[in-house]
Each structure stands twice: as C-alpha cells, then as structure tokens.
Amino acid sequence: MPAEETEPTVVSYSYLGPAGTFTEAALKQVPDAAGKTWHAVNNVGEALADVVSGRSTAAMIAMENSVEGGVSATQDALAKMPGLRIIGEYLVPVRFELVARPGTVLADVRTINAHPVAYAQCGSWLNATLPGHGHIPASSNVAAAATLLHGSLADAAIAPIGITEHYPLEVLATDIGDNNNAVTRFVLVSRSRVIPAPTGADKTSLIVELPDDVSGSLLGMLEQFSTRGVNLSLIESRPIGDALGRYRFIIDADGHINDERMADALLGLRRFSPNVLFLGSYPRADKQTIEFTSRYDDAIFVEARQWLDGLLDPTA
Amino acid sequence: MPAEETEPTVVSYSYLGPAGTFTEAALKQVPDAAGKTWHAVNNVGEALADVVSGRSTAAMIAMENSVEGGVSATQDALAKMPGLRIIGEYLVPVRFELVARPGTVLADVRTINAHPVAYAQCGSWLNATLPGHGHIPASSNVAAAATLLHGSLADAAIAPIGITEHYPLEVLATDIGDNNNAVTRFVLVSRSRVIPAPTGADKTSLIVELPDDVSGSLLGMLEQFSTRGVNLSLIESRPIGDALGRYRFIIDADGHINDERMADALLGLRRFSPNVLFLGSYPRADKQTIEFTSRYDDAIFVEARQWLDGLLDPTA
Amino acid sequence: MPAEETEPTVVSYSYLGPAGTFTEAALKQVPDAAGKTWHAVNNVGEALADVVSGRSTAAMIAMENSVEGGVSATQDALAKMPGLRIIGEYLVPVRFELVARPGTVLADVRTINAHPVAYAQCGSWLNATLPGHGHIPASSNVAAAATLLHGSLADAAIAPIGITEHYPLEVLATDIGDNNNAVTRFVLVSRSRVIPAPTGADKTSLIVELPDDVSGSLLGMLEQFSTRGVNLSLIESRPIGDALGRYRFIIDADGHINDERMADALLGLRRFSPNVLFLGSYPRADKQTIEFTSRYDDAIFVEARQWLDGLLDPTA
Amino acid sequence: MPAEETEPTVVSYSYLGPAGTFTEAALKQVPDAAGKTWHAVNNVGEALADVVSGRSTAAMIAMENSVEGGVSATQDALAKMPGLRIIGEYLVPVRFELVARPGTVLADVRTINAHPVAYAQCGSWLNATLPGHGHIPASSNVAAAATLLHGSLADAAIAPIGITEHYPLEVLATDIGDNNNAVTRFVLVSRSRVIPAPTGADKTSLIVELPDDVSGSLLGMLEQFSTRGVNLSLIESRPIGDALGRYRFIIDADGHINDERMADALLGLRRFSPNVLFLGSYPRADKQTIEFTSRYDDAIFVEARQWLDGLLDPTA
Question: Which of D270, D278, D308 sits opposite C263 (nearest CB)?
C-alpha cells in the first residue's frame, strides 16, 4: 500500500499566529511540518476555513485547556464545518509572563491588555499584585504584547513565555498563571479521509447530539460506550443553540475506530443519536497505551460474529 | 427456494404419553403432525433423546406452566443436550378433574394418586373438599388414572379433563384446579438447523450463563437486550449445579434472529457471556405482533453499518 | 436490653422427618435446639403451618440445593404465608447411598423407590450401573427406605448416608450422587419480629414482585441494589401463578438490614416494587464477612443525611 | 411563621451594568426589587463578591444563554465562592441592534466594537452585510455603545435593543442576531440559607464533582437521579482546572429539595460524589409544573420509610 493511502498527506499549515503563540509552539512539535508552508491566521474559524477551502492541507487549533475547559469556538466550528478530521494531538504547557515597554516598572502598571482567557488564568496573581488595575480585552495575547509597541493604551500585556524572543519588550514578572501545570491540548485538522493507523495508544473524537430529554438520553448514550468497555477521557456539553436545554456532546473515547469495540460503540451511537460526527481516530499526545479488559478484545468480537453467522446460515 | 430449506422437515414425533396427556393435546395442535408417526414416551428426557438419536424428528415438550413455573427438567435437559432447536410453540389450557373407578362416590375418597405438580395445583379444592386425604405421588396423571383400573391403592386420581374418553372411569368433580386460567406452554423441538422464517410475531429462546458475580453480571446481561430495544417475555434462573450461587438463565426474547436488533443483542450476549445457547427463533403461539420503537428498526441498523463502512473505507 | 429482645426465643421445632433426613441433620447443627421439643412433619407446608399456628416456635426447612436449585415449595410457601422470618442458615452436605433389604445384591435391583429430586441427582450412577431399572417416586427418601421393610414393591431405595443407623437395611452402594460437593441450604424460620443482631457476615432474604414488564423492571430492581453497593448471592425467579410471564424473585442480599446501605436499598426496593416481603436478616452459615467498597460505609450515609438535614433546616 | 423565615430577605441588588444591559432587564422583572438600592457592577465576579461581602443582599447574574451555552465565568464563580444560593430565575430575550454615532450610515462601517459573545451571535448577519469589517472586543456591549460617544475607534457597536433609550445613538440595523428565539437565563443569588417554598414548578441547581474516571462515574451520577425519577433540564461540564480530564458538572434538576424524590437523590449524590454544592431550590421562570410518574410521589417515600421503621423496631 503506498504511503499516501495509510497516512494523511499535509503540505501546508494554518495556525493562530503570529509567531510566539502557544499554537505556533504546538505546530513546532510536528516533525513533518518543518520546512513546509505555514499560514498565520487570526482565529480558529479562519484556520479551519483554510482547510475547508484547500488553502492549507491542515490547521493546528486549540481544543482543550486544563484551566479554561473546552475551547468553545473550536468545538462549535468543528460541529458546523463538515468534512474535517483530526489527525494528530499535541500538548503545550501554558505559562504566562507580564511584559511591558522597556523602562516600565511593575508599580507603573495601571491597565493590562490580555485575551480574556489568559486574563482569567492569571487572576490570583493580578488581584494580589496589582489590585486596582484595569483590563482591556485583546483578541490574542501576542497581539496584546505586540501593540504595546504600536500605540496600545495599556501599560502591560500578558503574553506566553518566550514572547521577548520576538518583540523588544521587558518581562515584569514571569510564571504569573494560577496553575503551573496548565496545559493546552491542540489538534491537527485536515480534510483527508485517511485515518491514521492504530498505534495502541489512540483516541477517537466525536460530536454527538442527544435525542429528546437530556438526562435519560445522556445515560443511554454513555451506555453505548460502557457496554463495549470503551472509556471516555473527555465529555463536554455545548448548547446546540436552537433552544435552551438542547446539547451536543464533545467526546474523546479511548481507542481507535479499527478496534472492534470502538467500531461497535460507533454503530450503537449512530443508531442511538440523531447526529454523530466522527472527528477522527489518531495517536494520543501522551502515547499512553489504552487499557481495557480482555472481554472486549478484538478476537471476542470476531468469534461472536462467526457464531452468529453460523446460526444464520447453517449450510456455511 | 425449496420448502425443505425454509422450514424444518418433521416426519415423526415423540411426546409424553399416553393418550390423554396435555402434551398429546399440544401435539394435536400441529397441523403437519396429523397422519405422521407419534411415539408416546415416559418423560421429557426420553423425548429429547429420541430427537438427538434420530428416532424422532421432533419432540413436543412442556416448557412453562403458568402455575408451577418453568419445567425444570425441560430447562435442564435443553441446557445439557447439544444441537436441539425449538421450532414451534403451543399453548394448552390446564384443567383437571377428579376421577375414580365406577361406583366410587366423593365421600369414599381417602387416598389420591396424582403427579406432584397437578396435586399442588388442586390444593385449595382438595383441602376444602377432602381435608383428611392422603397423596400417592404418580409419575404422570394419566398413569395415575389408568392404574385405578389395574390395582392402584388409591381411591381416586387427578387427571386432565377428557381422560374418560380413554379410560372407563367416572368423574367425581371437574375443574378442580386452583386457577381456571392456567395454561401450559409447550414447544416443538428438533435437530434441524433451519430457522423458521420470521413472521413479525416471533420469539427467540436462549440459555445464558453469567460471568462471575450474579448481581452485577445479571444487570450487564439484561443491558445487552435493553440497549437494543429487545424485550424479554421470560427470564428464569436455574442453578448450573456445580456450586451454590452459580446460575444459568432461561430467556425468551421478543423477536427473531433475522431482526437486526435481535442479531445485535445476540452478538453482545455472546461477547458478554461465557456460554450462550441459541434454542431457536420461532412463531409465537399467541401470534401477537412484536412491538418495538422505530429507533430499533432494521433500517437504522443497516444505515449505521453503511456509515461505519464509509468511515473505515473512504475509497468505497 | 434483656436477651429475649435481642434474639428470637425458640422452644420447639418442626422439621421434615423422620429421623435420618437431611433436615434433621440441619436441625442437629442448632446448639439451642438440643434438648428442646422436635416435631417431625411430612412436608415444608406442614412445618411452616406449625410455626404460623404456634404449635412450634421455629421450623427447619430446605431453601436451596446446589444441584436442584431453589426448593420451589419452600419459596412459594414463604411467599404466601405472612409473618414468617428466617433467623438462621445451615448447610448440609448431600450424599446418597443405595439401600436394600438384607440379602439383596446389586444385580437383583429392578425397581428403585426415591424422591424425584434425589433420583435425578443420582441419574449418572443409576444409568451406568442399573441401565434397565424402574423408578417409583416417593414423598421422601427416608420413607422410601423405611417402606422397604413394610411391603414396598421396590427392590432398593435411595437414602441419605447414615440411614442404616435408623433402619436394618444394607448399603448396596454409597456416594452415588452425581456431584460430590452437593450441599443443601436450610433455614430456620420463626414468627419472631426480633431480627438477629448483625455479625458482619449476614444475609438478608427477600421476595420481590416486579411492576409491569419483566426485562425493564428487572433491570430497575437490580439497580436498587447496585447503586447502594449491595451484592446479591441468590436471585431466582418463581412464577406468581396468576398468568404466564408474571414473576416474583427470591433474593439473598449480602448484609444486614441494620447496615445503612441495605436499609437504603430496602427503601428503594419498597418504592419500586408493588410487593416486597422481608424474610429476615441473619448470620450466614459460611460466616464469610461481607466485603463492600468503603464508599458504601455506614458513616457515609450518616454524613449525607446530616448534610441534607442542614440544608433543609438552616437554623439547626 | 414570620415571612422573613420563609423567604429570603433582599434589600439591595448588584447587577452587571450600566443601564441598558440584559442583566438590568432581568432585574426589572423582580417585583421586590422596585424601589430598592441597585448597584451596577462590571462583571459577574464583582456582583457575587458584593453578596459574599454583604454589600448587596442579592445579585442578578447570567447563567445560561441558549446560543452561547453556560456562562463559564458564572459557573466557575459559583463553584468557588462558598455560601451562595440561587433564589430566583428569570428569562430575557436576547435581541441585538447595530448602533452608531448620529450621521453614520451602514456603508461607512469598517470596525465594530462588541463583546465577543454578542459578536459571535451576530456572525451570519455581519458576514453577509459587512464582509470586510474588523472586530474590536469590548468588555460589555453597553460599554461598546457608550464609548462610541467618547473616543471609540470603532464605527459601530452591537448593543441590546433599547440602548437608544439611554444613549443618543442611531440604529443602523435591528434584530441582527442569528437566532430570533435566543434567550438568556438569569438567576438571583443571595447568601440567605432560607430556601424559597416549593411551588410545584421548581428547579434545584447543583454543582457536582465526579469520583475518578469520567465515563463510568458520570453514568453512576446520572443514575442517582434516574433511579428516583428526577429529570435534568441542564447538565454542563466544566473543567475543575487542576488537571486535564477532571470535571465538575453544573446541573439543574426538576423539582424542589422538599420533594422526597429530590431529597433522596441529593442523599445518593452526596454519598456518590466527593463534592456536591447545593445552589438552591427555587421557582422556575417558565412556571411549568414538574411532571413525574406517580411511582415517585412523596407518599410512596413516606410509606416506604414507615415500612422500614416497622421492620427495624417491631415494638413500635
């Protein structure tokens, strides 16, 4: 089998720029991306639109943040843009510093420019250190830092550690985030229908809508996984948006669509749910091998199918 | 397709005799049995052994009695004799009379000969009418009646209504059973691997063993049916017999193995259980069409499989 | 608290006699029974009726047999006779011998007298050793043995090992049962409302009817136990008897009604089921301490109740 | 009982200001708030801090938005600030208009100032009508509108319908939201321990953490509700924030803590979960009476408790 059939082919990448973002740090983790074309874009929607339109063959987007939870915009964009597939997962530590124009000292800081999420993540340090400060929301932290040099009204900006490699700014304080273990999970998204080969340490991402009432049908949906021994590492709800109380669920399940138990869970899910979006099966960033009880082994599924086939066709 | 491939071929029948038994009444309900060879045998084990050995092509056996419950001997015999299949179901009303030698009157009756099950089913009437009587257990009620004429020590016998068509006995009291709606369910058993065609009003019979602990695994077993929308009309436990607390379950599930939801439940069951015995799919005696929610329609299963196939092979 | 309030007081016992039965062997295991009045009776119903009427203060009855399963008559009698409670559990090994009148040799045996259950339990040995024999059903094995000396038409009888201590018979073969580990479980039943104190190795016996449809409601019933961490050591179905497909369930649950998790499961069960019969909490015969996860500890239940009370009455 | 004991007493209110916000519209729905002191604050955290500190006796905060889902900041603040209780619920239709300085026409608009959520909610209209526009994020829509008159760099702002009652601006387009049925759900929060009396149309809000693994324990948590017949109208996940894959769940359950089935579900939940936060029971904004099957009636719970008490204390 030629290589292009077993692995998605990627030749150009879109990512949330500019240089210095956490997203760029994630993209630097992709060996194949070295030396390829990179397009810095302004938001997740633009990155995904590049993929849909064919401008890029893949986009790196933030999917989950251990402090702030599922990145709503990403989840909603994936739910609404057909034909996208996740082909890889990457983890980037989230560490912030407070930067300012050269010459500024901490005591001078009155107003801080920062993306609302980053701002929230540094809340404890900011409230303790700069109790009377004001906040100007920015569309990105790197932009907040960059505009300090181009007419920003703010005195300082919250930026990813390393920003001073890109801009002539001064660090007023470092590691100002509330949680030193904070990590953002990024995924690489393409239009390729080719599913990365199973590695034994894989993840399957899904977006699932529930039929009618939430509580009973959420139970019913979870049973599709539990009765096949499939564990979930992520389940988040997002409103569908047409009425209060209607949700879709963003799910990461342990295992690969080529695993019998996962394939069977997908069948059960598809029959159960009015809408299942398969976002892909791909290797986990943490390379942790999936554990499951031997009762859900591939061989058990194959044997059961042969048994049923024998009952249905006694002449075989 | 020739008829012999779509329906099991039966040319000779074994049944619990002699003439006059409820089992004979069940066999009389089988149109195809008219004019064929009938073997009257002494017990269920013998009837099934006739089928296993090929002496008969089918046997009519009692499966469930609305008063006395699952006929344990039948359930155990089916569990232990490999290769048997149920191909039909028949219901016979269970009505008893007290019979005696001509000239006997009710006031003379001191000792009653009766099969223990029939004796138990007439307990209220007997205790009220003949408070001081004794009971001699018989291996069958017809035998109890017949031996009244050949040296029985008993004064009377409990027998199926209609027994006086076969033996010159007198009826002392009729309809003496505690429950006038009592019914016995019989099944016709053969060795044929051919499954009767689905009719929409079918039943699938199974014997299932549970893995390890009873309470958790019984829940897990029941979920195999409930998550596929398959209802059970019978579930009875029988000890496996090797140790206290180990059970097999005798199950009748609504639907036919050719129904997608049933086939999928059987797959789940086979994966779950250390031992599943498929006893057959066959038309229900009551001809009641199976009701199920449209979510479990065949088309839903087919569509889900096509969807999964499309994901697994994007070139297809 | 005086002793008579913490433990049921028993002064006379009924049991299935005569001397030599397994039931007598069970009663011999009860230390308090030594030197008290013992009434040998003819069947389980009579033994329980003695307790209901006050003739005896307790009755020893067979409850479960590892080979033949729940003793239907016992289960049905307990379900129908109100006010009975189980206060103790006893295990008796089930071992049989073939006995005959002195002078008989094995080769002479044509006809065997035996209770149908015992007869079934010795089936393998009998079919191998005496292939052409006939069976005369007896109401009890001891009676079968005893009547060999008083006009029985049989050549031999199946009896409990030890029968020759009571009757001048000869043993033709010993340990003829199919399963050398067979055990019968007996329970001591009284009318006392006093529940034996918890020992940490207790069992709670129940008879439960299900609402409407069997499969869904059986799941719902089992969840009452599983959501409180209560394991079941026995669950058997018995037809209620008014119509096909209607069952009651005989249940033994691990633990004592004084355990918080058991009390809460009973509450849930009582709300769920149209009919719950509490048969008692009593020490297990095997004295095996009940294992359960610490999540279901008494302290957890008490703390939750205090938390709820605090919410409901903020002034407390 | 004096009124102050049966209903929380509120004398001053904090809300997200300034005049013209949706939050103000919600507060106007509270009859008791008329004529009391209102504090306009800058964000949800400030509003809740006012309540915690005692500056206000209640705060009106946005809880759920049918388009954008759970308001993360509110959910997280409630999870982290101890002692807060929801005492009322209010719904406000979410309708937007595009406003500008007098004299501006739609064709002039290059840059739009808007809160990111409002901006997202008007995405379809904006992309279709003003394809090349830029977005400046604002901390609130009313602020965006107000600053148009005080040096804003933007040409227009997205604001709640009605904003021109407060500011001399011109409406360029109205009802520009993607979803005309969009509604925001607000709740009134106080420190009072007094729970509003049940009305039959109540809601109970909770924040619940799960033990260990997500999928199995989410099932176990949902069963605490389903086995007591309690339906959920909202279940949303929020990361706890200490590690990827750890969640708390924001739950709205149908019914009142004074309902037996809800109280019992709370007990089960408290035993199950390492952390349950009771946010209150209060009348639903939609006044829709809670439906539940009669099996979960208060009387059923009371009867079961009496039955258990009778078993536990036979002398009572």
Answer: D308
Chains with at least 3 CB pairs less than 8 angstroms from chain B: A, C
Residue B90: beta bridge partners? B186
Distance CA A124, CA D80 (A): 13
Pick the CATH number of C195-304 from 3.40.720.10, 2.40.50.100, 3.10.50.40, 3.30.70.260: 3.30.70.260
Tens digit of each residue's pLDDT (9 = 90 or more) over D151-189: 888 999 999 999 999 999 999 999 999 887 788 899 999
DSSP C229-271: T--EEEEEEEE-SSSTT-EEEEEEEES-TTSHHHHHHHHHHHH
Distance in angstroms (rounded) separating the CA atoms of residues A61 and A71: 10
Query: In the beta sheet, which residues pair with residue A86?
Result: A189
Q: Quick one: pLDDT at residue C117? A: 75
Domain range summary for chain C, segments of one domain joined by +:
10-94+182-194, 96-174, 195-304
Three-state SS at A40: strand
Q: Rounded to a whole number, what is the distance in Å from the CA of C101 to chain B's nearest CA?
A: 22
Instruction: Give counts: helices (H), strands (E), chain C.
Output: 10, 15
Residue D76 confidence (pLDDT) = 84
More confidently predicted of C6 and B286: B286
Interface residues of chain B, partner chain A, Cβ below 8 Å: 193-195, 211, 220, 223-224, 227, 257-258, 263, 266-268, 270-272, 278, 295-296, 300-301, 303-305, 307-308, 311-312, 314
CA dist B118 and B179 (Å) reads: 12
What SS3 state is found at B173? strand
Task: Domain D197-284: give its CATH architecture.
Answer: 2-Layer Sandwich (3.30)
Give CATH superfamily name and number for D1-94+182-194.
Periplasmic binding protein-like II (3.40.190.10)
Quick one: pLDDT at residue B70?
58
Cβ-based burial of B105 (10 A; exposed 0-12, middle 13-18, buried ≥19):
exposed
Q: Where does A201-303 sit in CATH, by number?
A: 3.30.70.260
Say if residue B4's pLDDT is above 60: no
Interface test with D, best of A147, A244, A288, A292 (most D CBs within 10 A): A244
- Which of the residue ranges B278-292, C59-73, D125-139 has the most confident prediction, judged by mean pLDDT? B278-292
What dotted CATH number matches C10-94+182-194?
A: 3.40.190.10
The pTM is what?
Answer: 0.83
| Tens-digit pLDDT profile for residues A47-63 | 999 999 999 999 999 98
Q: Best interface-test mutation with C: which of B215, B222, B293 has the largest number of C CBs within 10 A?
A: B215
Do B10-94+182-194 and B203-316 come out as alike in CATH topology?
no
pLDDT at B169 exceeding the cut of 90: yes
pLDDT higher than threshold 60 for residue A118 = yes
Q: Does the distance separating the beta carbons of A245 and D233 come in below 8 Å?
A: yes
User: From the list A135, A233, A241, which residue is nearest D214 (CB)?
Assistant: A233
- Residues of B within 8 A of C116 (CB-CB) are 116, 137
Q: What's the rounded Cα separation, in Å, for the pair C174 and C159?
A: 10
- The per-residue pLDDT of chain B, averaged, comes to 88
Q: Residues of A with CB below 8 A from D116's CB?
A: 116, 137
Q: What is the DSSP pairing of strand A58-65 with strand A12-16?
A: parallel
For domain B203-316, the CATH superfamily is ACT domain (3.30.70.260)
Beta bridge partners of D307: none
Do chains D and C touch, with touching meaning 3 or more CB–CB pairs less than 8 Å apart? yes
pLDDT of residue C306: 94
Above 70 in pLDDT, residue D206? Answer: yes
ipTM confidence score: 0.86
Q: Give me the CATH code for the A8-94+182-194 domain, please.
A: 3.40.190.10
User: Letter for the amino acid at C314?
Assistant: P
pLDDT at C25: 94
Q: pLDDT tier at B5 (50, 70, 90 boundaries)?
A: very low
Q: Give me the CATH code for the D96-174 domain, please.
A: 3.40.190.10
In this model, does residue B258 exceed pLDDT 50? yes
